[in-house]
Amino acid sequence: MGLIDQRWIDLFGDAATNGWALLNGTIEPFVPTPSEVLFDEPHRLLRRYGADVGKPILLVPPLAAPALCYDLRPGQSLIEFLIEQGRTVYVVDYGEITWEDRGMGFEDWFDDIVPQAIERVSAAHGDQYIDILGWSLGGTLSYLTMAANPDLPVRSVTAVTTPIDYSEYPGVHLLREAAKYTGGHLISNAIRVAGNIHAPAVRLSFRAAALEREIKRPWFIIKNLADKDTLVRMNAVERFTQQLYAYPGRLYNQVYVRLMLANDLADGHFTIGDRKIELANVKVPVLAFAATGDVLAPRKSVEAAAHVLTGSPSVRIEIVPGSHLGALAGSDARATTWTRLAEFLNSLDD
To answer: What domains, with CATH codes, occur in the chain?
Structure first.
């Protein structure tokens, strides 16, 4: 009986300590993986992680998300894992989006920002070909960059939870029905007036996409108050969510009109004015991850990559457990996404 009583005392003590640390933000200090800034320019800051002698890989973040997505915390860091694999990791960081950036569109990234980062990384390694990886819309940027610039020194593209077929996207059918009556102009005009999709709205939409998780969050915290490891992982995701940026208004209009309404990517292209970027121009091996619990990029939406990347010598689709972010940095990522990524990259090394 005495032993049982002591266990309860210890349990309540741990819960009280963890609860207080969670409230005052001290449950785990943020310690990023050490890096070196190579170039510090607006919307294209380039960092290097690890020794410069490993095979180079460039991580391409999504729009509106900080590069923190690749380095949430020790144990939840794709960067840390890749360094352990002997690779030199580079990340291009776009920084915050302001009112002055409202005219930026997809082409600013796939014609300029991402190609420049690729060329800089390649040059730092004697002009050798490099691998690139993008999560979510970072994967879209990676696909479009290689489709628009097939001669870039890139060996492979990996896309983690990147949607292609937006007809599988939650709620998109309602948007299309509404657009029949408004010509799609109601939302487009509202975005033009606002300038950007501002950071608070982006954070709210990210939470809304996992509404069930948000509703259950208080109970989840209470249930796991004595489990510091679980709370630390949750806190890392919360820290990431709080740092989501704004979307440039023009780019978000392109997402709305070209991706959601027109479903361009599922048809194998992306249209800007009279210019058409053909996904068949992606000429390198592709690895695409879909997650079983992803509501932002449903499995069928991701798997459509195999049907449109017809110029690639191989398109490998991997299904992994987790949510949209969990596939990249969740508790199962090391044993699933990261391990399969390492196998893919190692196969190219042979």
So the answer is: 31-198+246-349 (3.40.50.1820)
